[in-house]
Amino acid sequence: MSRAAVQVSAPRAATEERNWERFRVRRPARLIAVRPCLAGMSIRSCQITDISQGGAGFSVHTTIGLPDHYYLNILGLLTRVGCAEVYRNGNRVGVKFIDILDEETVRSIVRADFAGAAK
């Protein structure tokens, strides 16, 4: 086999870059999901551990019954953020936002978290 035929690639994690700056936070939130056949909504609590304009990471008590798409309601914000799940690892979940958050919204979440931690 010639040397030109061998291709070495870097591991994905080493080549993957994030599009947005990620901030570590500890913010309470709720996950709101529509049940199958529009049979109502399910709501569960979660703790946001990191957030960016494009997505977030959070922990939940259990992922059993959690769908792949839902709304994230960050306590203190008047909006629901549509999410698509990217990964699950135990009780940790990572999502990407359906619509990118504007910078000011992310700043207000980080500031509120910092102000709450300082108390």
TrEMBL record:
It comes from the Bacteria. Residues 18-110 form the PilZ domain. GO terms for molecular function: cyclic-di-GMP binding. Pfam families: PilZ. InterPro entries: PilZ_domain. This is Pilus assembly protein PilZ. It comes from Metarhizobium album. The lineage of its organism: Bacteria, Pseudomonadati, Pseudomonadota, Alphaproteobacteria, Hyphomicrobiales.
